[in-house]
# Entry
Amino acid sequence: MFVKDQPILGWRLESADLTELPEAIQNNLGSVDATGYDAAYLAENVGSIVALQMTGDGPDFYIIGLQTFTDSYKTVSLKEVSEKNARLVERLEMVPELAKKLAANDPSVVGALKTVPVPMIAMSDVGFAIAEEITIEAPWGAQTKPAGQDAYLVYDTSEEQYYMVNSGQDGNPLNYVPSE
# Structure
């Protein structure tokens, strides 16, 4: 079981039109695990957010499914995100377009915290080789685990399908810690 250890920032998903998202989000959406999002998936998730996170290599932006967002997240103030996840805010400010949105307190930027523990299993524990690149089909498209690192599988009950969370530098699922 894993929980998010810090709140994140998100961009309100208010349209199924990808071009209505800021260009910086469009250009980095799904880039960490090579996920592509189509208009149908965006339409199903209007009312949720695009998670704005950073990995060691840069932006890690992805859509949080509407049902997951509704059931598992609570919105928090931007001040709380700044206090509890200052590093994220600092790193996002390195993306010029987002820095402007943050400085202007754009109402589309929201704080969010995942509040429920998430059961996950390491892919290596079910026989996938760490050394190999693995691609799976998630509810929103293909996801890729890079060769040389583990990843975790999560069962999405609303979609009745698995999705993948790549591991961070600490070996835990990216942006998660073991629940206590």
Summary: The chain has a mean pLDDT of 91. The radius of gyration is 16 Å.
